[in-house]
Amino acid sequence: METKVLSSGVEYSNLPANYIRPVSDRPNLAEVTDCDDIPVIDLSCTDRTELVRRIQHACRVFGFFQVINHGITGGSTEEMLKMAREFFHLPLDEKLKYYSDDPTKTMRLSTSFNVKKETVHNWRDYLRLHCHPLDKFVPDWPSTPPSFKDVVSTYCTEVRELGFRLLKAISESLELEGDYIEKMLGDQEQHMAINYYPPCPQPDLTYGLPAHTDPNALTILLQDGEVAGLQVFKDEKWMAVNPHPGAFVVNIGDQLQALSNGRYKSIRHRAVVNSGKERISVASFLCPSNEATIIPATQNGSSAVYRNFTYQEYYKKFWSRNLDQEHCLELFKN
Fold first, then answer.
1. Pairwise CA distance, residues 137 & 27, whole Å
2. pLDDT tens-digit series, residues 80-92
3. Of 28, 126, 248, 320, most Cβ neighbours within 10 A?
């Protein structure tokens, strides 16, 4: 019987046919360069003007940056990565209790991206959780490993606080009131994807996740400290974002591109895999409330690049398509 997930204990000596990308759509790993100039922003900087200026530069030129001295302890991030690894190393029948291919579920283990729609799959399993409000969602979370709920709840709370600090600085960097974005996005939802990329026999033929932008407002990514895999598309080429000790990668999502009227870019990024080691990453997504209307902030008489839309409308459209189609935001242009 074919298993529903890759983290099944089966080792593959060859890539199964339904994971092999067409020749025109392969990662070309030999052509990827390191992104050496990615901004690393120290959030303990006491000069607010300088901090906001750095964030503005990063959002405008890169669409992503790394943050250090962010207030989340190394113990918390290490516990989170340890918990992720323990979950994916659970016995298969224990994990499969949480399996679903229904993207509307608020807690599910799944594989690839959207297994119902795809013809070629991605070399990835993931546990997706809704995280706000915690008291609503935590009861449905996995009860194994035993400390899963406690560790992940603590981490979610800390990441949410960090996200709000970043949104305030991003608001200021757009010359808006500090609480402008937070008010616009409403009572923000928070989702998490705990990603597991097993060792892959032929990493040059497939992806962990193909190129995409994130449909939400802001993504805060915790990378495995030792195993690289995140790549971003900048200056017409793919670049590797190697883990920086103690840092989170922050990237602008589609909603902030729309809200900034296109001044800030939602960066295309992808995850590649490797043959030698498993890789874990934990992506936390701050999302507008479903009813929030995204209105581009026009300035100095400029016209709106995008029409007004609700997040619910956008999210539905995003999930109805394949991940590697044209940028979903293109469909919302004026």
1. 37
2. 999 999 999 999 9
3. 126
